[in-house]
Amino acid sequence: MTSDQSELSRVDRRGERRRRRSLPGIVAVTLSVLILIGGSIFAVIKGASLIRENLVAAGDYPGPGSGEVIFEVQAGNTIAEMGRALKEQGVVQTVEAFTNAAAEEPKSTGIQVGFYQLREEMPAADVLKILVDPLQLIRSNVVVPEGLRATQIIDLLVEKSDFKRRAFDTLLADPTAIGLPKQAKGKVEGYLLPATYDFGPKANPKSMLTAMVERWKQAAEESDLKKRAKGRGYSPAEVMTIASLIQAEANRPDDLGKVSRVIYNRLEKPESGTNGKLELDATVLYAIDKEAGVDLTQEELDTDSPYNTRLYAGLPPGPIESPGDAAINAALNPTPGPWLYYVTVNLRTSETKFTDDYDEFLSFREEFQEYCETKSKNC
After folding, report:
1. Which of 3, 191, 224, 274 lies at a C-alpha separation of 20 to 30 Å from 327?
2. How far is CA 263 from each of CA 126, 151, 256, rounded to the nearest angstrom?
3. Which tens digit of pLDDT belongs to each residue from 116-157?
């Protein structure tokens, strides 16, 4: 071997040793990089998990919640006010969780007033899903029809609630407790306005009766009762009494204004032969505490009571039942006409005929008697 060849051989061996020595270094560096990358990925995953946990811990319940909470959305409530109320009742964990969820729900601006069944410790988004759905409203509607007496209205409320009649009667003995107006003189008759009421699951006798009186006050304001009654020369209390008589006597909506006119004509034209007497059977029925009856006996007609308008001229002491909005408006705006008498000649159709002539009135009565004898067994 020449000297040149020997030198080359030594160079090759040194290069090979260097290559051998460098392989572990490369592997080490590569492993270090992988470890760093893996550690970073683990840190990111762990960090994201911690963020989620922190968000849940700090702002929102994971759900689904438990128990039962009846939550009320009141008129005029803002989203923030709802959030505070929900937090106070233990439904959401923070107000921010609810307001943030509402900000992402377009329907949150249309949440309806009323009661909703929720759970404790619910996710805010789940709460929103219930509140924006009108079908989730808890409804306990009570329909109070026109023409019921106060005793009948109380019977209805007792039937539709879990409260005993004694609880309502106690309130009626203290009319100031339910906001009864002074003109009612302590008597609730005529001042529980007929309407459909959504009392809600938290209602009690006081809130029910108060709501009905408040609804009457609203109707009185809308109809401008005080001013318009004064314009007719009557007090608001007298107009309410007239409205109750109209409600009791008129059988069809179209007849409300005509019955109103008959009442005013009889009150204001005693020279017409009526001597100021209204002579309404409905007042006799109220006097004898009888709910219905077409054919009253002479003994019943002669009942000595200030409510008996067959015996006493003028208006009875107060309303005899609860008139609706239409009857109140009819009392304030009677249909123009000369009528003094009316007779319902057909009980099936409620056809009623009006006249200012006594002889024609008698002919209407005969027509009714014939109807009873030939076409009806309900007379």
Report:
1. 274
2. 59, 25, 11
3. 999 999 999 999 999 999 999 887 789 999 999 999 999 999
Neighbours of 1 (CB within 10 A): 7
The pLDDT value given to residue 294: 64
Mean pLDDT of 159-188: 92
Domains of the chain from N-terminus onward: 67-138 (3.30.1490.480), 141-222 (no CATH), 229-375 (no CATH)
What does the alpha-carbon distance between residue 274 and residue 254 come to, in Å, rounded to a whole number?
24
d(CA 311, CA 296): 14
72: which 2 tokens? Answer: 């009320």
Distance CA 87, CA 328 (A): 45
Q: Which pLDDT belongs to residue 257?
A: 98
Q: How does pLDDT run across 52-99, given as a tens digit for each residue?
A: 443 344 489 998 888 999 999 988 999 999 999 999 999 999 999 999
At CA 219, angle to CA 213 and CA 224, rounded to 5? 125
**What mean pLDDT value characterizes the chain?**
86
Q: Kindly state the tokens that stand for 54.
A: 């922190």
Q: How far apart are CA 286 and CA 310, in angstroms?
A: 12
Residues 6+ apart with CB under 8 A from 214: 179
Question: Using CA atoms, how far apart are residues 315 and 309, in angstroms rounded to an integer?
Answer: 7
- How far is it between the farthest Cα atoms of the chain? 162
